[in-house]
Amino acid sequence: MSKQPNLDNLESHIQESLNGIKLLYKNRCFSQAKYCTYILIDQLAWLISVSETQVNIYFKNWLNKYFIKHYPEITAEEIWASRNGMLHNHSSISRDIVNKKVSRQLWFVDNLNHLNDVNTEFNSPDYFVVNTTRFLQFALLNAINEFMSDLKSGNVPDMNDLAEKLGKLLAEVKPD
Fold first, then answer.
1. What are the φ and ψ backbone dihedral angles of 108, each rounded to 5 degrees?
2. Could you tell me if 107 and 127 are in contact, meaning their C-beta atoms sit under 8 angstroms apart?
3. By C-alpha distance, which of 133, 137, 168, 171 is closest to 49?
């Protein structure tokens, strides 16, 4: 078994990212908070992607392993489509939606003060209404906690690859 990499800087990076997401959300910059969320998921998924180079595959693998159990009403494919729409078109409509590769478009309701499911109030077969607060404050945080637990226990495919990728991701992060 290879040496466990130091995860302190990764934890700092994640906390800074979450602080930024929270700050954006509290200041009603909802789209920007979601952009930063998708960027953070991209980064964390890449860390354990091993030799996989296709972002869509390792992004969805990470979601399926860590995120979906905390928001089981939506799929990794729907989140991927939403991510692409947000990052490339500033909407939740992506090529996967247009080409009907994904059956439902995610529609986010922002600034709710609860974590309850809101989709039942809308009940459309073409859309799933996501409670952004639940998405960010419950599902994302729990997924990150489980991910970090796996990293700390060495429960990832290739620790040598992880150490190299941590170095690349955190090159700009300096220890305190």
1. -95, 130
2. yes
3. 168
**Contact in structure between 45 and 59 (CB atoms under 8 Å):** yes
For residue 105, list its beta bridge partners.
127
Q: What is the largest CA-CA distance in the chain?
A: 51
Reduced to 3 states (helix: H, G, I; strand: E, B; else coil), residue 51 is coil
- Residue 3 domain-assigned? no
Q: How far apart are CA 165 and CA 161, in angstroms?
A: 6
**How many beta carbons lie within 10 A of that of residue 40, not counting itself?**
19
Q: Nearest Cα to 129, choosing from 117, 113, 114, 143? A: 117
pLDDT in tens, 40-63: 999 999 999 887 788 889 999 999
Asked whether residue 115 is assigned to any structural domain, the reply reads yes
Residue 1 has a pLDDT of 43
Give the tokens for residue 133. 């607060």
Number of residues written out for the chain:
176
The model's pTM is 0.87
Domain interval for residue 72: 8-169
Residue with tokens 């003060």: 113
Structural domain contains residue 30 = yes
Indicate if the alpha-carbon torsion angle 66, 71, 77, 79 is positive or negative. negative
The C-alpha atoms of residue 35 and residue 19 are separated, in whole angstroms, by: 14
Q: Give the Å distances, CA to CA, from 152 to 11, 24, 167.
A: 11, 29, 16
